[in-house]
C-alpha cells in the first residue's frame, strides 16, 4: 500500500489486551451488532478497520478512552456463519496515531488519524535479525506461556521469519494491556525484542508461590 492510499478517517474496533502489528494476520470473531455494521460498511469501501486498545478493560463503558496508537488492518478473508456472526482475517498494514474522534451517526467509532510517524511500517523489507537474537527471551517467554497454561507451537514458529515470530509472540503473550501497548508503540523490531525482554524480567518472580520461573 502507498502513502497516498491511506485513509484520513477510519472506523475502529476497540479491543482490550489485543494488538496487531503490520504484516501480521489475526482471526476475529465479530458478533456485536455495531461491529457487524462496521464490517459491512468496510467491505463496501476499502476493507480497512483500525484496531486500538481502550485504556481500561471496563466493558460497561460505551465509549472508553482510547490509547493514541493503534494499527490499521485490511480484511483479507470474510465468512458469515449461520448464526449471523462474521469470521474475518485481518492483516496489519501500518500503525496510526489518533488525532480526534469524528462524530457520526454510526454506532461504531470513527477516528481521524495520522500515519506520518509510522511510514516505515509500509517497508516490505525484513529486518535483519538472526534466530539467535531470540535466545535472551525465548526460554523465559516459553516458561511464562506454559505457566499460564497457554500452548504455542514453538516448532512452527522457528520456521517463520524473525519479524513474524517476535510480533506473533508479542500479540499472543499473556502481558498486561499496558505492556502490550508499550510493545505496539516501539519504533522497530529490534526495540520490540528488547522491550519483551525487559517485560519478562518483571515476570521472573512469581508472586503467587514465591518461586522463580526457570
Largest sheet descriptor = 5 strands, mixed, barrel
What is the H level of CATH, i.e. the homologous superfamily of the largest domain?
A: LON domain-like
Over all CA atoms, what is the radius of gyration?
18 Å
- The topology string of helices and strands comes to EEHEEEEHHHHHEE
Q: In percent, how helical is the residue content? A: 25-40%
Q: What is the C-level CATH assignment of the largest domain?
A: Mainly Beta
Low-confidence stretches: 207-214
Order of strands across the biggest sheet? 1-3-4-5-6
Q: What is the arithmetic mean of pLDDT?
A: 85
* Number of helices, where a helix is a run of at least 4 consecutive DSSP H or I residues: 6
What is the second-level CATH architecture of the largest domain? Roll
Model description:
- 29% of the residues lie in helices and 26% in strands.
- It has helices at residues 33-44, 135-147, 154-157, 162-172, 177-184, 189-201, and strands at residues 9-14, 25-30, 48-52, 69-80, 86-102, 109-114, 205-206, 211-212.
- The protein contains six helices and eight strands.
- Helix 2 packs across helix 6 (189-201) and helix 4 crosses helix 6.
- It has 214 residues and is α+β, with helices and mostly antiparallel strands.
- The N and C termini lie far apart (43 Å).
- The strands form two sheets. A five-stranded mixed beta barrel has the order 1-3-4-5-6.
- It is globular and about 50 Å long.
- It has two domains: 3-122, Archaeosine Trna-guanine Transglycosylase, Chain: A, domain 4; 131-209, no CATH class.
Amino acid at each position: 500500500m502507498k502513502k497516498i492510499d491511506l485513509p484520513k478517517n477510519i472506523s475502529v474496533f476497540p479491543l482490550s489486551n489485543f494488538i496487531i502489528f503490520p504484516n501480521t494476520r489475526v482471526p476475529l470473531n465479530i458478533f456485536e451488532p455495531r461491529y457487524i455494521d462496521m464490517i459491512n460498511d468496510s467491505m463496501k469501501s476499502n476493507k480497512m478497520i483500525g484496531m486500538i486498545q481502550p485504556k481500561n478493560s471496563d466493558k460497561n463503558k460505551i465509549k472508553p478512552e482510547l490509547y493514541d496508537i493503534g494499527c490499521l488492518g485490511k480484511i483479507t478473508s470474510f465468512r458469515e456463519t449461520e448464526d449471523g456472526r462474521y469470521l474475518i482475517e485481518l492483516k496489519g498494514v501500518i500503525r496510526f496515531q489518533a488525532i480526534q474522534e469524528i462524530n457520526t451517526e454510526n454506532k461504531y467509532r470513527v477516528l481521524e488519524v495520522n500515519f506520518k510517524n509510522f511510514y516505515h511500517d509500509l517497508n516490505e523489507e525484513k529486518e535483519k535479525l538472526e534466530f539467535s537474537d531470540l535466545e535472551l527471551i525465548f526460554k523465559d517467554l516459553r516458561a511464562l506461556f506454559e505457566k499460564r497454561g497457554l500452548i504455542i507451537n514453538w516448532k512452527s514458529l522457528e520456521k517463520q521469519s524473525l519479524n513474524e515470530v517476535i510480533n506473533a509472540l508479542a500479540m499472543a503473550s499473556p502481558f498486561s494491556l499496558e505492556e502490550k501497548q508499550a510493545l505496539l508503540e516501539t519504533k522497530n523490531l529490534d526495540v520490540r525484542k528488547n522491550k519483551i525482554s525487559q517485560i519478562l524480567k518483571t515476570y521472573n518472580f512469581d508472586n503467587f508461590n514465591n518461586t522463580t520461573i526457570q
